[in-house]
Structure formats: structure tokens, C-alpha cells
Inverse folding.
């Protein structure tokens, strides 16, 4: 299997398997990764840093110049004698990504995002379920494409539920989807490459790639229409053999509790999802939800040895009684060595982690940059 990158900081990879690719594709990824990580540099710098020959690098840079991905940015200031080296860097004309986030409570978010995770335009619309939701996804993707003034690299979609490596949604009870070939459907209808990932896994990728996430270990819980989770260990988001890694929303915390969308009773999601939290605005109920969350997280944090725990959702609901109760539960239900080092923090929805993670996923799948 080909490694996408051999950069020394360790392979942070969004999701799934490394793409098979020819040597040229691999070499392009090496050059682009260097430019993303360390900014503009000369062809000679790139040759030295990637281990490729100068002839190969010049050839690759020519291709990237033609596609508008990189640009020549003038000469390095203050150079020594001789012909000054021309710097190449990522261009303002580089392609953009259409990103969609299906994790909201009845809301479908979409954005055009540049390859650095910058949101260029954003839009939100209603999100239903079933086939209607598929049409809403296609419509928003089309509208965003119409507004794009640069080439679109692909469509990235973050959805709740269990998603396979081909972008099929195997099971998403809140959306009424099962065995839905969403990536293939979007690709067919829009004629663009499409990649679909679990919303929480993509949010975890984004917090590690563009945010403050600990690349060595991160547990991120998404609290929206449902409750999901993503686990990142040693730079890699785990999917697990069942593809259901992180699905903590459906751990039963109250056997007598209300019926959940999944069919069980008293799942964590029935008290922690945003609709339930909005109904339960009393401090004690928010604290109970936080305490239950902490109890579900404690064995996970202990087992994996993770210190960075993120609650991603509406800050007005999470940042207060709920966060403190989660921290207290973790502190009392884990080994003191672990408890002293675990830090639970809230990342507000405004950070748009699912959208940015969807963009990072497309970037990785299409050009091999992590
Ligand atoms: Zn459930």
C-alpha cells in the first residue's frame, strides 16, 4: 500500500484507506503536502525536502501551474549571488470544495471552502428525511456550484450514521436512510467527485487539521439532532471493523428511558441530543445529561488514554452546567492519573467543524494532502 506522505510529523490522515495511485499522483501529493505545511518555496527546496529529483519536481510544478493549483510568487528576498530562485506556492486560483453538513437539527448547512479550510460562502436550508433529504442535498450542492467562481475539486458530505469507505450510508435512523449510495448518487447527478463521511469523524478530522485538537489523541462528541462521536489516535481517525467507531449516542444509559430513533430505549442520545436539551432547560436536567455523558466517556477515555475531549455543539446549551457535570463525572470515574490530565472543552457550532472536515476529506481523497 502506498503512503500518501512521508513527512516527518507523522501521517495525520482523515479517514479510510490510502488511495491506490500511480507514482506521479504520489509525487504530486508529496509536493503539495510540502506547500500546504510549510508555505512557498523554490523548486530546489521542494526537491531537497521530498527526495525527488529536480527534474521531476520541475515537471510536477509545471503541471500544478497549468491546473492553477500553484503560482509563481516572485523571488525570495535578500538572496545571495547568482540567479535568485523563484518561489512557488498555493495559488488564489486553486480549486474549492463544496461541503455539506447534515448533522443539524432539521438544518442542512452548505459552504464553498478553500483548500486551507477557509469558508468562502455559506448557506443553510431545511433538512427533511428519506428521499426528500437526498433531493435537498442535491439542490444545495447545485446552488453552491452555481456560485463558485473557481474550479470545484469535489463534493464532501458529513452525515450522521454509519458510512462505508465508498460513501454509502449504511444506517442513519435520524434521516431514515439505510444502504443509501449517497456518494455515487451525488457524483452521478452533479458530475463531480463526491465523498461522504460520518459527521463526527469529519468534525474530528477538522479539529485536528484546522483546529486545536491533540493529534496524538482526541475524542470528539457531536451534539446536534443526534449524538455522535469520533476518535482520533496517533493522527488517525478510527472507523473500526464495524465502521461504527465513536457511535456513543446509542449507548443505553436508562433502560426505562424514552424510545430512541434506533429502536432501543434510553440511549444517551434521548437525553443529550439538542432537541432534548432545549426541552430540558432546567440546570439539574442539563447536569444530569452531562453526568450521563461523563459516565459513557469514562471507560473510553481510560481505555484509549486520551486527554483531549471535545463537546461540539450549541455552546449556550453545553458550556455551563452540562460541561461541569461531564468534567466531574470523568474526574470521579477514571484513574487519578488519567483524571488529572483529561481536559473537556466545548467547541461552538460556529467553528463549522463538519463542513471543514468534509472539505479536508475531499482534499485528501482527491489530491492526497492530509
Ligand atoms: Zn439509540
Amino acid at each position: 500500500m502506498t503512503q500518501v506522505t512521508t513527512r516527518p510529523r507523522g501521517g495525520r490522515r482523515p479517514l479510510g484507506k490510502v488511495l491506490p495511485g500511480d507514482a506521479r499522483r504520489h509525487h504530486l501529493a508529496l509536493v503539495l503536502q510540502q506547500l500546504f505545511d510549510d508555505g512557498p518555496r523554490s523548486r530546489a527546496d521542494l526537491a531537497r525536502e521530498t527526495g525527488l529529483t529536480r527534474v521531476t519536481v520541475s515537471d510536477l510544478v509545471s503541471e500544478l501551474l497549468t491546473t492553477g493549483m500553484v503560482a509563481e510568487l516572485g523571488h525570495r528576498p535578500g538572496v545571495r549571488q547568482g540567479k535568485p530562485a523563484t518561489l512557488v506556492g498555493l495559488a488564489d486560483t486553486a480549486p474549492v470544495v463544496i461541503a455539506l453538513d447534515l448533522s443539524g437539527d432539521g438544518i442542512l448547512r452548505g459552504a464553498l471552502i478553500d483548500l486551507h479550510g477557509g469558508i468562502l460562502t455559506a448557506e443553510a436550508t431545511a433538512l427533511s428525511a428519506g428521499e426528500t433529504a437526498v433531493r435537498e442535498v442535491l439542490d444545495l450542492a447545485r446552488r453552491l456550484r452555481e456560485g463558485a467562481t473557481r474550479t470545484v475539486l469535489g463534493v464532501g458530505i458529513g452525515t450522521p450514521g454509519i458510512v462505508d469507505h465508498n460513501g454509502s450510508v449504511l444506517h442513519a435512523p435520524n434521516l431514515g436512510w439505510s444502504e443509501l449510495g449517497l456518494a455515487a448518487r451525488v457524483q452521478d447527478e452533479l458530475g463531480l467527485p463526491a465523498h461522504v463521511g460520518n459527521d463526527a469523524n469529519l468534525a474530528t478530522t477538522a479539529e485536528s487539521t484546522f483546529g486545536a485538537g491533540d493529534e496524538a489523541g482526541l475524542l470528539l462528541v457531536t451534539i446536534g439532532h443526534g449524538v455522535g462521536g469520533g476518535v482520533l489516535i496517533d493522527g488517525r481517525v478510527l472507523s473500526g471493523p464495524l465502521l461504527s467507531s465513536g457511535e456513543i449516542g446509542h449507548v443505553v444509559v436508562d433502560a426505562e428511558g424514552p424510545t430512541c430513533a434506533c429502536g432501543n430505549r434510553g440511549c444517551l442520545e434521548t437525553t443529550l441530543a439538542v432537541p432534548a436539551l432545549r426541552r430540558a432547560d432546567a440546570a439539574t436536567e442539563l447536569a444530569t445529561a452531562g453526568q450521563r455523558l461523563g459516565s459513557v466517556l469514562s471507560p473510553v477515555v481510560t481505555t484509549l488514554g486520551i486527554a483531549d475531549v471535545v463537546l461540539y455543539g450549541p455552546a449556550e446549551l453545553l458550556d455551563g452546567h452540562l460541561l461541569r457535570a461531564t468534567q466531574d463525572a470523568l474526574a470521579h470515574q477514571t484513574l487519578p492519573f488519567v483524571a488529572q490530565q483529561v481536559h473537556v472543552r466545548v467547541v461552538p457550532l460556529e467553528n463549522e467543524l463538519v463542513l471543514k472536515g468534509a472539505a479536508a476529506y475531499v482534499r485528501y481523497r482527491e489530491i492526497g494532502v492530509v
Summary: The radius of gyration is 22 Å. Residues 1-20 have pLDDT under 50 and may be disordered. The chain has three domains: 23-90, 96-202+353-367, 212-349.
